[in-house]
Amino acid sequence: MIGNRRGRRSRKLLKWISRYSGYWHLICTPGDEHMNMVTARNIIKCLAKHGLYEIIFVFLSVHREEAFVKNMLSYVSLDLMLKEIQHNGMDGILRMLDEHLR
Questions:
Q1: Which among 68, 71, 82, 93 could bridge 37 via Cys, Cβ 3.0 to 4.6 Å?
Q2: Strand ranges for 20-70 from DSSP E
Q3: Could you tell me the pTM of the whole model?
Q4: pLDDT tens per residue, range 54-77
């Protein structure tokens, strides 16, 4: 059963790569001159549309040095901290900071 699921996921990814080979090249190539914020947004939307959410995290990791990715992750972090404060107060933030500074 698990093997069949992996096989289906692999086939799905390979079909996506075949159909969107230009996007795949950009996902796998840090520092590519054609990568920009608009292209990144289009790639993420396309991956999400096809249910390839894991590859979004790979994409963000590969391009973590791009200024627009750093800025986006910074804003996402701020949004998540604000939500944590609203739900659990500052104690939740302090707990998370403590856990991740170990």
A1: 68
A2: none
A3: 0.80
A4: 999 999 999 999 999 999 999 999
